[in-house]
Structures are given as C-alpha cells and as structure tokens.
Design brief:
Elements: E1 3-12, E2 17-20, E3 26-31, E4 41-46, H1 52-55, E5 64-71, H2 78-81, E6 83-89, E7 98-104, E8 113-118, E9 133-138, E10 144-147, E11 162-170, E12 174-183, E13 186-188
Antiparallel strand pairs: 1-2, 1-5, 3-4, 4-12, 5-11, 6-9, 6-12, 7-8, 7-11, 8-10, 12-13
Length: 194
C-alpha cells in the first residue's frame, strides 16, 4: 500500500546543521483546505527563493526543501514501479514540483544514483479540475539522471534497478498542494493511504 509522508528540511544559520521537519523556511504537512479527491492534500511550501542563496547572506536560510515521500515502493524494480504521477494545485514547473527517485543498481539497498522527473515535462493533456494540473511519467525514462559513481554522472537506471526512495519535492519558493500520487499501479492522496 502506498502511503504519503510529508517532510521538510531546513538548514538554518549559523552552522546550517541538517534539520528535518517544518521550520522557518519550509513546510510539508497534510491540509484539508485544498483537495482534489477526498478531504486532504499535502501542502508543500518554501518561503525563500533559490536566487537568494547566491546573492545574499546565509541568513536567508536558502538551503530548504519540502517533500512528500512515497512509502510502499522501496525495493521494487523500476519495471514494477512503472508509471509515476501526481496532481498539483500551484505552478507545474520544470523543477518544482518534481519526482526524485533514488535507485539501487547492485542490490545492496543503498542509492547508486538519482533520477528526476519534472512536472512541466510530463503534463497530462486534460486537467483533472480547475486550478489543478496532473503529470505522468514512465519511471524508466527520467528527464535527468546520474549515478553516484563509478562512473560518476552516467545514468545507470534500468528496468531492473530497485527503488530506494521516491518523493515529490519542491526546492523553489512557492506553495503547492499535491494529491493523487501514482506509483506501482496505485493512486493515493489521503493520510491513511487511500
């Protein structure tokens, strides 16, 4: 069964220690204010933009993200993961929101690479409802992919690779509501996994 787990990361000054959980710069949580199906969606929000990371001071706290982890697909093959998708209320950009797929190629359960599937590159023809956009992608055909080595950078994802982690993530400034997350032939969008 698929289950969605909202998570956020905030890397605050002065030491920028990695902290997960909602914080000053990003939020990820269930909400009943906006929903496509059922009563809930996942709110993903980031309050600082990417450009400020390089043009201002560290106090901007630009190292932040908001995501929803898709639990229940760990260890299955890319062939079994098949089509992945989600619906979004908010901008369907090239990089936010997107799927991040960490994959294993040698069977040790550790990520050997990461693949990206941007929302804008995979927009479905018909919107599911006003103010909503859906995206759908074949998990074996990412927009961009690289391995952690060796060789570093070469995409090593194939149908027999296994899923280490799949998530819908935002790392740009804005607010999004995520619903109807699809993977491994199942769709979910409620806190209890239905």
């Amino acid at each position: 069964m698929l289950k969605l787990i909202p998570t956020a990361g905030n890397f605050a000054p002065p030491d920028f220690a990695k902290e997960t959980g909602n914080g000053l710069y990003s939020q990820a949580r269930w909400t009943n204010k906006v929903a496509l199906d059922g009563k809930f969606s996942v709110l993903l929000q980031k309050s600082v933009d990417y450009a400020s990371c390089y043009t201002s001071t560290p106090e901007n706290g630009c190292a932040a993200f908001a995501a929803v982890i898709v639990s229940g697909v760990e260890g299955i093959t890319i062939a079994d993961l098949s089509t992945i998708g989600f619906s979004v209320n908010g901008t369907c950009g090239a990089g936010s929101p997107r799927f991040n797929l960490y994959y294993d190629t040698n069977g040790d359960g550790q990520a050997d690479g990461v693949a990206f599937y941007g929302c804008a590159a995979h927009v479905s023809a018909l919107p599911p409802a006003p103010d909503w956009t859906s995206m759908s992608a074949s998990s074996d055909a990412p927009d961009f992919c690289y391995s952690f080595g060796p060789p570093i950078g070469t995409c090593t994802l194939d149908a027999n690779s296994t899923v280490v982690q799949l998530s819908v993530i935002v790392d740009e400034k804005g607010t999004w509501y995520i619903d109807r997350v699809q993977a491994a032939g199942t769709t979910t969008g409620e806190p209890n996994g239905t």
